[in-house]
Structure formats: C-alpha cells, structure tokens
Design goal:
Number of domains: 2
Strand order of the largest sheet: 2-3-4-10-5-6-7
Structural class: alpha+beta
GO molecular function, one term: oxidoreductase activity
Keywords: Oxidoreductase
Mean pLDDT: 96
Largest sheet: 7 strands, mixed
CATH architecture of the largest domain: 2-Layer Sandwich
Order of helices and strands: EHHHEEHEHEEEHEHEHEHHEH
Helix content: 25-40%
Shape: globular
CATH superfamily of the largest domain: Malate/L-lactate/L-sulpholactate dehydrogenase, NADPH binding domain
Family: Belongs to the LDH2/MDH2 oxidoreductase family.
Radius of gyration: 19 Å
Protein name: Sulfolactate dehydrogenase
Low-confidence stretches: none
CATH class of the largest domain: Alpha Beta
Length: 331
Amino acid sequence: MKKLSQKEALELAVNTLQKNGALKENALPLALGIIDAENQGIKSHGFHYLPIYCLHLKCEKVKGSASPKLNVISNVAFKVNADNGFAHRAISLGMEKLIPSAKENGISSLAITNSYNCGVLGYHTKNIAKEKLIAIGCTNAPASIAPLGGIKPVVGTNPISMAIYNKGEVKIIIDQSASVVAKSEISVRAKSGEKIPEGWAFGPDGKNTTDAGVALKGTMAPAGGYKGFGIGLFVEIMSACLTGSNLGVEASSFANDQGGPPGTGQFFIAVNPEKFSNTFEDKIAKIIQSIESQEKARVPGSKRINNYKKNINNEISIKDELYDKIISLNK
C-alpha cells in the first residue's frame, strides 16, 4: 500500500491529468474532487477513477483543453457550457455566480451542459452548503436503468443530492442515485472479480445476477422499484432536458473508450434560508437531534463527513497495483 501526504496526492492527481492532456486549469478542480472523495472514504470516485479519466483524455471522450463559457440568463439563473470538458471546472465557474446570487436574492439556479461525469455529486452540493445555503444538485448519466416491466435502459443512475449547513458546518449530505448502488461500485467489483449482492443489478435478460461483469452488460436495479425509476426520470428531465444536454440513451459510457463525449448535464439550486425563515437553523438542529438521539440511527452524510474530518490531516493510501498504474500514466 502506497501512502502519500495530502499535498503529494493532490500533485499526483494534477500531474497525471496534465500528462494525459488536461490543461492545469481543468485538471486542478477535478483533482481536488478526487482527493475529497478519498478523504470522505468514497474510494470508487477517488484515485480508482483516475486511470479512466486519463483514458477519456487520450481517446478525446473528454476535452483536456476545454474552455467552459458562462451565460448569465438573469440575476438568478446561470448556465455554463462545459465544452465537453471535465464537469468540475464548469461547475466551479458557475458557482462563482450561483452562490452570491442566492445569498442576495434568496434562490438561484445553475445549469451545466455539454458536460461529463461530475464524480461525487455531494462534493459539489457540500461546497455550496459551506456558504450557509441549502444546496440541491442532480446529474444524469448514460442509460443503465430500465423502466418497470422493461429490460432496456432508459435513464442512468442519475443521483440527486442535498446538503445542509447547521451550527458552524455542513451537517447533512443526502447523495443518492436512482439505483440501489452507484454503477461505479459494480465496476470496482468487476475488476476484482468479486461477486455483487443479489438485488443490485440485472443481466441482459432482465434477471437478477451476482456476476458484476454480467451486470455491467445488463441494467442497474432501481432503488425502491418503480419509485427509483421515477427519481431517475425526474433527474433526467432536470439535468438533460432542461439544460439541453444529452439524454442517457444518447450519452456514451463513462466506463470505456467507446463513442464520443458523453455530453451529459448537471443542475444546481442554491437557497438562502435566512430569506425565507428565521427558525430554519433551529428546525434543522432539532431534526438532527431527533435522529442522533436514537442509538443506531445516523444522519445522512454523517459517515462521509466524519471520515473527512478524520482523514484530512492523514496520509492517503493507494493500493500498490493502482499506484503503479497511475505512475505508468505519467511516463
């Protein structure tokens, strides 16, 4: 197991992305997201994904020289064309307008189009929530979930996230996909040869499978059956239809080098609770207390928040095989 300081890990991520074709201004926002995922304990979106990002730079599925453009629609509505580059830079650019607008006007919105995999969606909502705002975000993905009664995928795992600031820090991060698990969790197991639990996914024939490789050729199981598909469809409408981005059925895979840029989208809403209620903070504190007072209950996002606090000043561990792969990408 290779151990790196926080600074060394960030430099490794930035340098690797640059070596494979990304401009520094595009590499750094993504690298910060990778390190944050590692610190939150979300390894599937940390260094594990770095070789895939590099593959997509090489095959031009993502544009390393992208120059995102901001469009001010109104004083509370903004849109960024990501130019088929990494989502992280486009989102960061949009937040420069979204956050002050929400603080001043009470609510503001941000659409991202011609985008790409945004990594951990909750990372972006957390960054908004740090500004004492309610943060809501959603992103679509290549189709992998079939409608109830069907076997052909129509929407992606399409996560939705909400982050809430309370009493000095971000206390709640809801970040969940429309599927039982994120597709990356199956990809990780497919690489290691590990079986997946029954109920995570279906094979191409629409039947349950515990074979991760077969699952990647089939469809993801929606969380809560038809309700999960409904959430996925909601996100598809907000992230693709509303932003003018590719639908899941039009987008190329996030996992391989087949096809051109996926061109997916994201949509964010920021709300200043002080503009709407003078009791919001106390109400949130009461909800949190009502959860934490129960012995085995956990506030959504508390695990990743606690992981981050514990790991932020510690070294980051990377499996030797993965580290060697990353080093080879720097040659």
